[in-house]
Design the sequence.
């Protein structure tokens, strides 16, 4: 993936930004055959963006098309907290805030054509995507991600995740939810949100031993309540829908690394 987001130590030393997005730059995705080399890469021009984490990639039809899912902020610019921000809608997504949504590219290997679209709307900012690892390289029905608390993240200057999301790639969004014109989801999205001022990290999907369905397993993560200073291991069961199972308290620890 060749996108107009650059890291430059020399630029930082000279008083510039370490991380900078070039608004005049281009973006492209390279597809290489399984046993190919650098000379066999086929490049596809896509809409300029910066993408951090890929959900999955697969071949939709042999030697004809491939599909990728990713997280695409339209522009790269940190947001600052304001009274207008809330947890349900983000009104300034297209004004340059760092707001990650699920996105899809479909690449036609024969014609070179590209079709692309958002898969999720502006209700939730999501990142750190994952799938059932046993289904890597095939067309996935489900994906998972951590939900960003945009207000808490802006106030603290660091990303905080206050929920988990399940993406149903083959199930369309409920059109009845669009009555207020706020939703733009192309696919169904389920969420499990933590209690207030609780944030998670390091979520993983654990397949069920002997399970056959792609979503047969558990989502497991650490969640910390900043009001009570209690950390918990949270376990969610996955099969058709998200179901809360249980939590275990864990001792809060501080790690110190000497360099």
Sequence:
């Amino acid at each position: 993936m060749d996108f107009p987001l650059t890291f430059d130590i020399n630029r930082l030393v000279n008083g510039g930004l370490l991380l900078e997005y070039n608004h005049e730059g281009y973006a492209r995705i390279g597809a290489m055959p399984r046993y190919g080399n650098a000379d066999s890469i086929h490049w596809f021009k896509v809409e300029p963006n910066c993408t951090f984490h890929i959900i999955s990639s697969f071949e939709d039809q042999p030697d004809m098309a491939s599909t990728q899912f990713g997280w695409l902020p339209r522009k790269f610019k940190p947001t600052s907290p304001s009274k207008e921000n809330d947890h349900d809608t983000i009104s300034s997504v297209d004004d340059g805030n760092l707001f990650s949504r699920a996105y899809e590219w479909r690449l036609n290997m024969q014609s070179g054509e590209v079709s692309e679209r958002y898969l999720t709307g502006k209700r939730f900012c999501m990142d750190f995507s994952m799938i059932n690892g046993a289904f890597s390289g095939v067309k996935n029905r489900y994906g998972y991600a951590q939900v960003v608390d945009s207000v808490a993240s802006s106030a603290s200057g660091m990303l905080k995740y206050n929920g988990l999301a399940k993406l149903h790639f083959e199930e369309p969004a409920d059109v009845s939810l669009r009555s207020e014109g706020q939703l733009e989801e192309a696919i169904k999205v389920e969420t499990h949100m933590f209690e207030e001022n609780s944030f998670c990290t390091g979520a993983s999907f654990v397949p069920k031993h002997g399970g056959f369905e792609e979503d047969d397993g558990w989502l497991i993560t650490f969640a910390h309540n900043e009001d009570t200073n209690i950390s918990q291991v949270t376990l969610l069961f996955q099969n058709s829908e998200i179901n809360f199972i249980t939590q275990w308290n864990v001792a809060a620890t501080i790690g110190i690394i000497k360099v």
